[in-house]
Design goal:
Layout: H1 2-17, H2 25-34, E1 40-45, E2 48-55, E3 64-69, H3 81-88, E4 94-99, H4 111-135, E5 141-146, H5 148-159, E6 165-171, H6 185-191, E7 195-203, H7 206-210, H8 212-219, E8 250-259, H9 266-281
Parallel strand pairs: 3-4, 3-5, 5-6, 6-7, 7-8
Antiparallel strand pairs: 1-2, 2-4
């Protein structure tokens, strides 16, 4: 039975990447061989089965759940960011569900091109993941996205407001200027009406590193005719203290030495993410009232 499931996972992962990404076949084989068959959970999306990988929180009292969205050309157990968080966050009281996303039509597609395609197909997968979490009585949720997965997670929150989703962790997200505001990562972040942790490595992709200042600047600015959504530590100036720190809704952190996948820096990544979740989203954190 376990062998059958492993083979099933292999072919599903292969379909995630598609034939245009055959160069990643070795990585797929490794992923399938290391996945615990018990993690496999198929989501029903418009009558089609979509692979997801679930792990239940290991503490007696759970803080909530995270839905993990991988980068383009990757899979729901991709080494580095995705594998580390989906496998290790349960030890901190968070159940995880990593969802397989569609393969790009062309491996050379830009993040914006993939985001445009995903904006039509991925929301239903996220909705199915939210339902799956709800069936396990997990309603306090955070979306974690890596690369283009972060952009589609932010886009989903903007277009599908839900009291179940309490925050967004965007890892290695491109915030470069784009002529189409709907495909501009920084502009999307500005509209996210939830807490945001923006994480990237100093050796991340050039587009991610070079757009870091813009992501922060735009995310904490106000849309025309509206009030700004986010506060950062710098907004408190000299009056910053541990009490008003809980009112911060946008925090950006650069991890020195880390690349796009945080290879070799998985422990630091996990510590930063788990700490932010505990402080701002967990059962003991202070919730900020949000419009539905």
């Amino acid at each position: 039975m376990k062998l059958t499931k492993t083979i099933s996972i292999y072919f599903v992962l292969l379909s995630v990447l598609g034939s245009a990404q055959a160069m990643a076949a070795e990585e797929i084989t490794k992923a399938a061989s290391t996945i615990d068959a018990a993690d496999e959970q198929m989501l029903n999306v418009d009558g089609q089965e979509v692979l997801s990988l679930y792990r239940h929180g290991e503490r007696a009292r759970l803080d909530g759940g995270v839905i993990v969205l991988h980068d383009q050309g990757a899979n729901p157990d991709w080494p580095g960011v995705v594998r580390t968080l989906r496998r290790e966050l349960p030890r901190y009281g968070w159940s995880t569900l990593a969802v397989a996303l569609p393969a790009p039509d062309n491996s050379a597609q830009s993040s914006a091109q993939v985001l445009k395609a995903w904006s039509e197909s991925v929301p239903k997968r996220i909705e199915a993941a939210i339902v799956a979490m709800g069936e396990r009585n997990i309603f306090n949720l955070v979306l974690i996205g890596h690369g283009t997965g972060a952009a589609i997670a932010a886009d989903y929150i903007v277009k599908n407001p839900s009291d179940r989703i309490q925050g967004l962790i965007a890892i290695g997200m491109d915030g470069s200027r784009h002529e189409d505001e709907a495909l501009d990562g920084a502009m999307i972040l500005r509209k996210v009406n939830r807490r945001i942790l923006d994480l990237y490595g100093s050796r991340d992709l050039a587009s991610v590193v070079n757009s870091a200042q813009r992501r922060e600047r735009v995310a904490v600015s106000a849309e025309p005719g509206k009030q700004r959504q986010h506060l950062r530590a710098a907004d408190f100036g000299k009056g910053f203290n541990q009490q008003n720190a809980l009112q911060i809704t946008y925090r950006q952190h650069r991890l020195e030495g880390a690349d796009h996948h945080f290879h070799g820096y998985e422990r630091q990544l996990l510590s930063r993410v788990a700490g932010w979740l505990r402080r701002y989203i967990g059962s003991s954190s202070i919730k900020i009232k949000r419009a539905k």
